[in-house]
Sequence to fold (278 residues):
Amino acid sequence: MSTEKPSALISKYLRTQHLPHIWCPGCGHGILMRDVAKAIDNLKIDNDNVCLVSGIGCSSRIAGYMDFNTIHTTHGRAIAFATGIKLAKPEMTVIVVAGDGDISAIGGNHLIHAARRNIDLTVVVFNNDIYGMTGGQYSPTTPKGELGTTAPYGNIDRPFDISALAKGAGATYVARGTAYHAVQTIKMIQDGISHKGFALIDCISACPTYYGRKNKKGGAVEMMKWQQANGVSVEKAAGMTAEELAGKLVIGKLHQEMGVPEFTEEYQRIIDRFTVGG
Fold:
């Protein structure tokens, strides 16, 4: 057993008794979990004032690893549980962690209505283009033509752009990061938490075991190098043609709208109207 002391970030934000984690070697989720912890640390939010909610999937195991108020809910229902928590405790920082399948397939309706309501939640999507925990089935973000255990001849569905979906549904803060671009991703999660309203950060992860291996993407290093080579900042993308952007990942803050009424505040105004003396 190693006698090396854990970093301050691990000691402060992880339940070390539950480590080591279960993720496959090379999985990008560990990097993204660290990004969430670092964003909270930068904002100096007390652990007791954070509630982290997850559904079911590889990324959802984070609710067991991170040392906040945490709840590991049912498949696709993390936002529904988080909504109830935010209504009961509007002063609390509520963060939802979910995979691409969890948030945009069985949880898709919860996503669009939470965005529509502009409830003050921060949703961090660990997007690895596959259902990893249950065996490599294709997900709503699996690119067209790619293979999965349920698409042995190639996926024929058009994939969701989760960021565009959230923006279209009314989210007032939308961003995209990657496991490779950790510094930028930390800042986006941090800004999403600070934003008053519904925030979604679509974080591109890497699954070398189920997605990468089946689709001949190489190992973890090659998949991270792909993120490095194909990540294009919002500012740079603005000067590129559609042909130049084909196959690229536009990363950065994609949308922010200020001044939209926030759901829990609107709800409190109704309560105040009918409170004695209100």
User: Anything to note?
Assistant: The chain has a mean pLDDT of 95. The longest strand covers residues 249-256. The domain at 24-275 is CATH 3.40.50.970 (Rossmann fold). Residues 28 and 206 are 5 Å apart (CA to CA).
